[in-house]
Specification:
Elements (H helix, E strand, L loop, with lengths): L12 H12 L11 H18 L5 H14 L16 H5 L2 H12 L1
Helix pairs in contact: 1-2, 1-5, 2-3, 2-5
Amino acid sequence: MNGSDASVTEPTYVDTLAARIREATPSDLIPDDAGESEVRQLFRLYALLALVRGRDVSAADVHDAWSVWMLGRGEGDHESIVPFVALDDAAQEQDDPFVRAIRAAVAG
């Protein structure tokens, strides 16, 4: 061993970014019907968006990431798993706080 505790794993750059995005997200928007592991996976997807799209991330990007997450949860029959442009305005606006959180995490 190199003197470090092998049972302690340092967070990866992805997890660090995901945590920043989660911190910038209003707490009432964190899914409460999912376990912590599932929520962590959602925010890892948002971290991926931050890494590949940066401040150019869009609500459509967030929606696509959420759709992938929902499919992974076995919820492919959810009414909102459609292309972003097929959503009504109210449904599209639900992605805006996550766009702001991703942009805030990228900025700072």
